[in-house]
Design goal:
By secondary structure, the protein is α/β, with parallel strands linked by helices. It is built from five helices and ten strands. It has an eight-stranded mixed β-sheet with strand order 5-4-3-6-1-7-10-9. It has a two-stranded antiparallel ribbon with strand order 2-8.
Length: about 220
Amino acid sequence: MHPLITLPARNSMSGMGQLMVDLIVTLDGCASGEGWPGWWGLEGPEYLAWLQQEAEKNYTFLLGANTYRLMSGMSQEASAGGGEFSADEGAALTGLAAVPKVVFSSTLKAPLAWPNSELVAGDAVGAVREMKRAASGPLSTMGSLSLGRSLLAAGLVDRFRLVVFPLITGRTGSERIYDGYPDVALEVVESRTFDRGLQLLEYIPRVIDGPPGSNAL
């Protein structure tokens, strides 16, 4: 499994139209790395049990074309009994077919083959802003770093959640999450330590103009 992807694992946000950016990351801010397995090989029973509990919460997932291609292929492979997935990974990947998904892409063509996937070809920020107004339930990104970055910069993100894995991938790491981000103040609302040293950090984000002294904070 691609290290970037958190399989359906949502938080305890309340209210309709709430949007969360949900990512897993190394300590040095990388979402994946050359040669590393899913979850960097550090997932433990406590973390996997938490993922299973969180998967029962009904989110609509937002993703871009690259994540759609990756995850739909993995889901279909798991459904066919292929791939080197653990039992937990295979079940979660197969279950993604039933989850509502909105895919933002100007290159993909409708209808999308992955069940319960709606294609939006226009402006993602404008579409998500309207989805938040009209949503009957919460929204969350799935991977899709550039999409999450755009939504955060537009002030649409209500929660920013990370699971930080205790690794520094200075030589092999890739997909640096924070490159291109605006300055963001973060108010911590939840934290937890899982087995094997994984850290859950959940924040309310607020885009700011600059450092202290510039009237940003």
